[in-house]
Design a protein that fits this description.
The protein has 129 residues and is mainly β. The chain has one helix and ten strands; from the N terminus they run αββββββββββ. The chain has a single domain, classed as Jelly Rolls.
Length: 129
Amino acid sequence: MIVRQLNDILATDRDVQAETWTSRRLLLANDKVGFSLHDTVMKAGTETTMWYKNHIEAVYCVEGDGELEDLVNGRRYPLSPGTLYVLNGHERHIVRPKTDVRMVCVFNPPVTGRETHDDEGAYPLIIED
């Protein structure tokens, strides 16, 4: 059994800061559960382009308001508490938070915590032994 408190991972290597977001990685590949789980805050007034070409990501918004744009078809979707989106087609997308937006994110395959977005907005596929 794994039990963690968010406060226990703040200011550790599982608390990853970027210019437009903060991701607190509650579960990672080395936890050996088959997915990673992140508590992520997208910063108000920013824009982040992402493309998880090596991962499926499911995102559940729990706080805040913003917009999700699918760059494959140009559709835009409101983000608010209770919204779920799944990038099951590895869609390139943009998140535009109007306020700070807090989301619970699940990645499959799991991320290791060492990944950084490349020039395309993607995480490389790193496999843990």
